[in-house]
Amino acid sequence: MLDSEVFDRDDLFSRLRRRPDVEAPNLTAVDAADRLILDEAAAALPTAPPGTLTVIGDHYGALTLGAAAAHGATGIRVHQDPLTGELALAANAATVGLADRYRSCALGEELLAGATVVLMQLPRSLGELTEVAESIARHADPSVVVYAGGRNKHISTAMNDVLGRSFSEVRATLGRQKSRVLIARGPREAAQQTYPVTDHLAEIGLDVVSYGAAFAGPKLDIGTRYLLDFLPRVNPRARAAVDLGCGTGILAVSLARLLPEVSVIATDQSSAAVASAAATARANGLDGRISTLRDDAMSSLATDSQDVVLCNPPFHVGAAVHTGGASKMFAEAGRVLRPGGELWTVYNSHLGYRGRLQRLVGRTDVVGRNPKFTVTRSVA
To answer: Boundaries of each RlmG N-terminal domain copy (predicted)?
Structure first.
């Protein structure tokens, strides 16, 4: 256990790692925004009664463990949309002897009831920020103060406006190391919560349901739209399939419609994506054939268990442009596919994934290319 009386924050932070998320020399577990959020909240944290501190969007544990070690905070409630964040926090908390100081919660009353201080990393999505802000305003103590920080390049004036719809007072702190914190007070409960939202996509005949943090919201991502053109070429004898990185579940629902005998697992590391995909399956009457799974790149699925994997991989890790996440997904696809199974992938053509797919999965053919995207079929 760290001794808060002789607390050395730099020592604590030097021990934090990103695992199981991608680790690389240019990717860090702690950023300047983490430090600034903790500094801005330093006066409020010691006065927060046990169990009234909530942390949202903690990337790898710096906010949670920093508050626990420096201010003796206990009963911290934490919500992290990505599973990799939860797993990294758990591993880091065990490393520094602070695993008993927090618990993970879903976004909502369990996380926020009675909260007086909220520390959060600002999400890049205004939809996610809207849902979080409305949840805080609805469930937290009326005295709650929110310290929401991020890197300057990812903070927009629209974020002030979003917070301003849920709080009567929003102000920005002075910047430091290209980071800034927005402080919000005076929650005002919305008459109706914005999320989840439902949209009918007439182009493909689907109702799509989205929570705030789901990629692309209820809209049709252009990469996914291109991959849909190739689904009729998927092995018609497939019985077990995965929509890997499912988002709102558009690919899962489309494949289930196309192949009446197939069972599809829609999986994502995002809790909002998994909830969205489940709701989208229900909205289209396919929840009996589509199951959802929050997982780190199919790590819990059995080897040689699937006939088809569909994948529109990210080309970033958090805010950083990095293809390590895609490589992890390809490697897991190669593991879970049965011999002869197919991985169908769409990606930005400039990324040139074909060689990587051939190495990690098997023979890979380019089956489509337009000015922006490439679609490949890899056979395990």
So the answer is: 12-184
Q: Which two tokens stand for residue 168?
A: 């009567």
Predicted confidence (pLDDT) at residue 359 exceeds the cutoff of 90: yes
Report the candidate in 124, 148, 150, 125 with the shortest Cα–Cα distance to residue 136. 148
* Residues 55, 61, 62, 65, CA torsion sign: positive
Output the CA–CA distances (angstroms, integers) from residue 130 to 119, 211, 324, in the order listed: 16, 10, 29
Rounded Cα gap, residues 40 and 59, in angstroms: 18
Q: How confident is the model at residue 196 (pLDDT cuts 50, 70, 90)?
A: very high
Helices within the chain (DSSP H only): 9-14, 32-40, 62-71, 83-96, 109-112, 126-139, 157-166, 222-228, 250-258, 271-283, 324-336, 354-360
Report the candidate in 355, 350, 304, 309 with the shortest Cα–Cα distance to residue 329: 309
Write the burial class of residue 35 (CB in 10 Å: 0-12 exposed, 13-18 middle, 19+ buried): buried
Q: Look up the CATH superfamily of 197-379.
A: Vaccinia Virus protein VP39 (3.40.50.150)
Task: Return the CATH number of the domain spanning residue range 9-187.
Answer: 3.40.50.150
Query: Hey, what are 115's tokens?
Result: 């909260």
**Spatial separation of the C-alpha atoms in residues 57 and 341, rounded to whole Å:** 36
What digits encode the pLDDT tens for the residues 277-297? 999 999 999 999 999 999 999
Question: Would 9-187 and 197-379 be classified into the same CATH topology?
Answer: yes
d(CA 362, CA 340): 9
Q: Are 138 and 189 in contact (CB under 8 A)?
A: yes
Give Cβ neighbours of residue 84 (< 8 Å, ≥ 6 apart): 18, 20, 21, 269, 296
- Report field, pTM of the whole predicted structure over 0.90: yes
**Strand, helix or coil for residue 235:** coil
The answer to whether the beta carbons of residues 290 and 256 sit under 8 Å apart is: yes
Query: Is 145:42 a contact under the CB 8 Å cutoff?
Result: no
